[in-house]
Structure formats: C-alpha cells, structure tokens
Amino acid sequence: xxxxWVLAAAAVLALLLAAGPAAGKKTKEKLCDQGWKCQGxxxxxxxxxxxxxxxxxxxxxxxxKRNAPLxxxxxxxxxxxxxxxxxxxxxxxxxxxxxxxMQLKEIAAFLGHVGSRTSCxxxxxxxxxxxxxxxxxxxxxPSQDYCVDSYLYPCSPGAQYYARGALPFYGNIxxxxxxxxxxxxxxxxxxxxxxxxxxxxxxxxxxxxxxxxKKQPSAHDVFVGNWKPTKNDTLSKRLPGFGTTMNILxxxxxxxxxxIDSMNNIISHYQYYLDLMGVGREFSGDNLDCAEQKVxxxxxxxxxx
Length: 305
Ligand SMILES: *[C@@H]1O[C@H](CO)[C@@H](O)[C@H](O)[C@H]1NC(C)=O
Ligand SMILES: *[C@@H]1O[C@H](CO)[C@@H](O)[C@H](O)[C@H]1NC(C)=O
Ligand SMILES: *[C@@H]1O[C@H](CO)[C@@H](O)[C@H](O)[C@H]1NC(C)=O
What we know:
single chain; mainly alpha; Lysozyme; 12 helices; 40% helix; disordered N terminus; binds 2-acetamido-2-deoxy-beta-D-glucopyranose; signal; endochitinase activity
C-alpha cells in the first residue's frame, strides 16, 4: 500500500517537473495590496474594491428604515461595521470579482439576503415593503435555547442559541462552526452577534464565502461564475446564478417548493437593491430562482433560519 503511494507520488512529481519551467505559458497574475481597504497581496486588490464602489450614501439608501420607530435594532447596524467586516473577505474576492457590474451585483445579492432575513417591512409600510432591511438583529421571542447534544460544539452553560445576526442562524452547532470560521468564541459568547455589528456582518459574509459542505460550492462561487455545475447539478436544475445561492443558504426551507412567498421575497430584495444601486434589475442574471431545484443538503440541519 505504502509502496504504491510512493510510486504514485513520484509519478506526480515527474509530471510537475515535466510541466515545469518550459511550460510557463500561464503568466503569473498580478498581486496587489491596498492597505486596510484590501489587505493583499491578492489579485482581488488590483481593481477598485468594495470601498470604492459602495459608499455610505448607498448603504443609507438601501436601509432607509432600519432606525424607524417600528424597528427592533435601532442604532445597531451601520455602514462602518459593514465595510470593516468586508475588509476580511475583499482580498478573497468578496465584491471584488469580475469587474464593476459584477461587483455591485454581488453586493446587492449578499445584501438582498441580509435585507430579506432582517426585514420588518410589510405590504403597506411607508417606503414600500423592501425599505425595512436590517430592522432586526435577533429573534424576538425565542421559545427555546436551541441547544442540541454535540461533542464538537457543546453548549455553554446558560447560553442561548436563538437566531441572531445579519443572515440569522440558530443552534449551538451553527454557532460553533461559524465561530471557528471567524476565530471568535461564539459558543461561549453567542450574544456577540447582537452586540457587535461588525461580527454580525462577518458571520454573514463567512456564510456567503464558504461552502456548507466539502465539495460543494459557496454562494459567492455560484453567483460570480466561479462554479461549473456537474451533470448531477444540471439534472437537479442547479445552475450558476442567484437562485443557487438560496439553495446553499437555506436548502429546502426556500428551494424546490415552487414559487413560494419566502423565495420571492428574497429575490425581490435583491432586485430592489439592484435598482437602487444603479445596476438595474434587468441585470439580475440567469437562474434567478430555485423553485424547481433539488437542494444540495436536504433538510434536518439548515444553517440559516
Ligand atoms: C479587474 O477588472 C477587469 C476589468 O473590468 C476584469 O476583467 C477583471 O476580471 C477584474 N479582476 C478580477 C480579479 O476580478
Ligand atoms: C466588534 O468586533 C470587532 C471584530 O472582532 C472588534 O475589532 C471591535 O473592537 C468590536 N467592537 C466592540 C465595540 O466591541
Ligand atoms: C447526485 O445527486 C443525488 C441526489 O441529488 C445524490 O444522491 C447522488 O449521490 C449524486 N451523485 C453524485 C455522483 O454526486
């Protein structure tokens, strides 16, 4: 067994050597650094970053009612925390992939999810139903502490794992996994997500930038065109575009159920933001919904509520 492995490794080495210096047709991509705005070196720091194309007035425009009297997280969410959180993911391609239109579209898509999950808008609200994103930062009347037995992510005594954040998630396992991703002890301190908007945005961006399981794409990847569907994906109607981001983030809570309200509401937020950001909903892209998609991860453990 070991012998076989050594042989295989040697063969790989030989291939690498053969493909080595002489084969250098792939020119090395330029790497850049833009200090705090984009902590390179990264190819994604060479173009305009999210800081250049999405400014405070745009954020205010999207979330005009977040501090309205009926809101439930008054004074919590702001541009500064959004942009500070983004600093971690910008060098990895968040809002910095594919040129200006795609960059703006990705911000609209990410915030479309955030807006729809944290909205307290309703049909006849002033300003329209989509002006109320970032109105919540937590579940208001949790009926339980959402603690399940887990060896890897045991609950802390007294901690409550109800839904919190910008892309709210609940349960000790999700808090554990995402805390590990952020290197913040969310198992011990789940309350950070309702006390610190930078951490809340970071947790949401982590969800957007990472696959839920190995060998699956991230929402970022399916949206910006980094992902090639397999035959199985195509048969399951999972194709690049906004629709598949919902499949990844919510699974069968939202997808594969036909044209249900919860799905339509997320899409409407995305398109509303595209309009406000000057891109226009005519550029929403193909495969906008997931009404007929089979989900990557069938129910049981959706990471987002
Ligand atoms: C940088 O911008 C160019 C021109 O818009 C675009 O073609 C390229 O893909 C961008 N680079 C990255 C890393 O997205
Ligand atoms: C919020 O979290 C960020 C990132 O961990 C940290 O730098 C900042 O100091 C925190 N803010 C407050 C008010 O605790
Ligand atoms: C194809 O998808 C089905 C369900 O969607 C899954 O059970 C099966 O393992 C997948 N096959 C491959 C080769 O990935």
